[in-house]
Design a protein that fits this description.
The protein is mostly beta strands. It has three domains: 175 residues; 93 residues, Immunoglobulins (Immunoglobulin-like); 75 residues, Immunoglobulin-like. It is built from one helix and 29 strands. The strands form six sheets. Strands 16, 17, 18, 19, 20, 21 and 22 form a seven-stranded antiparallel beta sheet that branches. The chain has a six-stranded parallel beta sheet with strand order 2-5-8-10-12-14, with no helix packed on it. A five-stranded parallel beta sheet has the order 6-9-11-13-15, with no helix packed on it. The longest helix is centred in the first third of the chain and has 8 residues. It starts with 15 loop residues before the first strand and ends with a strand.
Length: 363
């Protein structure tokens, strides 16, 4: 599940799409609404977003539903902005694809922070509402259906209810309520801590959970700059449990300098939640590895634990005879124009700051 820090506010240049007329008084499909565009976005663009044909334009949507009005979304719709929707008693927003997977994805907030009054319904098991920001539920609204409702945070009050099974259970990182809603609302993973410890030649990562709900595995990720992460390992979870479980992983090839790590939990429904990043310094020996080892003689991948952008790698056989030379780049996969014969070889890295040689085998 992805962790969202706060909510998205406002669309670029104040672009907005408002239903016309402002208050919809009869049941309707989201794609069939007549729209009014403002702030630089046209009514035609609004209609294209509502029909799922435009997934890139940024615009806020405003819809007001009269009492007992149903607004249905039956195709994939992405709103890059907020979806401010209000209504009277009995009004609801329904996602119903009729079988195929159908998702309403709102990158900002969904609902209205002061006067929502709208029920959220995900009819089928493949129907989804995903909210990157905050989902608001006010004034005795309800969440129901066989699909899933998920996002960054959920904020409810005044008697909001969730059916059983609750489509939003475990789907949000945080829950805020003016009543007892959050006391029965279960987060997918309750993380107690996540830390790193430096050893002589490796970094040990440790973490623990207090509870897990429909939980599949952790994706442990690593980065050299705190921005660009790659998957280091997948660690299986324990499904559903209210007992503490401790986890650990050893990074046996840490980078010289700062190592950034983060955990992403993945549920059985593939929903992801990412926790905060931790940093661990490592000041060990600069080195590099060859893989696979033994090699097939056609290619070789070199992995460095330091910045190697100004270096060169030279390949020699076990007699010290030159084979090939490569300028090391960000991608360190070496391709040999003439396949290497079986035997022992050496890869020598050279730069103004370092010279290092390792051995590898060819089958």
């Amino acid at each position: 599940m992805i962790f969202f820090y706060g909510s998205v506010v406002g669309a670029a240049f104040g672009q907005s799409c408002t239903s016309n007329p402002t208050t919809i008084s009869s049941n309707t499909n989201f794609a069939s609404i007549s729209w009014t565009g403002a702030g630089g976005v046209s009514a035609a663009t609004c209609a294209a977003i509502a029909s799922g044909l435009n997934t890139s334009t940024t615009a806020n949507f405003f819809v007001d539903l009269a009492n007992n009005t149903v607004l249905t979304i039956n195709n994939n719709v992405t709103i890059n902005g907020t979806f401010d929707i209000t209504g009277g008693p009995g009004s609801n927003l329904t996602v119903n694809g009729g079988g195929p997977s159908t998702t309403l994805h709102v990158t900002g907030n969904l609902g209205d922070a002061t006067n929502n009054g709208v029920d959220y319904v995900v009819t089928g098991v493949n129907d989804k509402i995903k909210v990157d920001g905050t989902l608001y539920g006010k004034n005795n609204n309800a969440l129901s259906g066989n699909g899933s409702i998920s996002g960054g945070s959920i904020n409810v009050k005044n008697g909001t209810t969730c059916s059983s099974p609750c489509p939003a259970s475990g789907g949000f990182t945080t829950c805020t309520a003016g009543d007892s809603f959050c006391t029965t609302y279960s987060l997918p993973v309750t993380l107690l801590f996540f830390s790193g410890a430096l050893n002589s030649d490796y970094i040990k990562l440790s973490w623990a959970t207090a509870s897990e709900l429909n939980f599949d595995y952790f994706d442990l990720e690593k980065s050299s700059n705190g921005k660009d992460f790659f998957s280091l390992a997948n660690v299986n979870g324990h499904g559903t449990t209210n007992e503490r479980h401790d986890y650990s992983f050893e990074d046996n090839f840490p980078l010289v300098g700062k190592n950034y790590y983060r955990l992403t939990s993945v549920d059985f429904d593939s929903y992801r939640e990412t926790f905060k990043v931790i940093v661990q310094n490592y000041s060990g020996e600069k080195t590099f590895q060859a893989s696979p080892n033994p090699s097939d003689g056609l290619s070789l991948t070199l992995t460095f634990n330091f910045d190697q952008s100004d270096g060169q790698v030279t390949i020699y056989d076990n007699m010290g005879i030159f084979i090939a030379s490569f300028q090391v780049q960000e991608s360190s996969r070496l391709l040999f124009s003439n396949p290497l014969r079986s035997g022992i070889y050496f890869a020598k890295f050279s730069s103004p700051a370092l010279t290092k040689t390792i051995r590898f085998l060819v089958n």
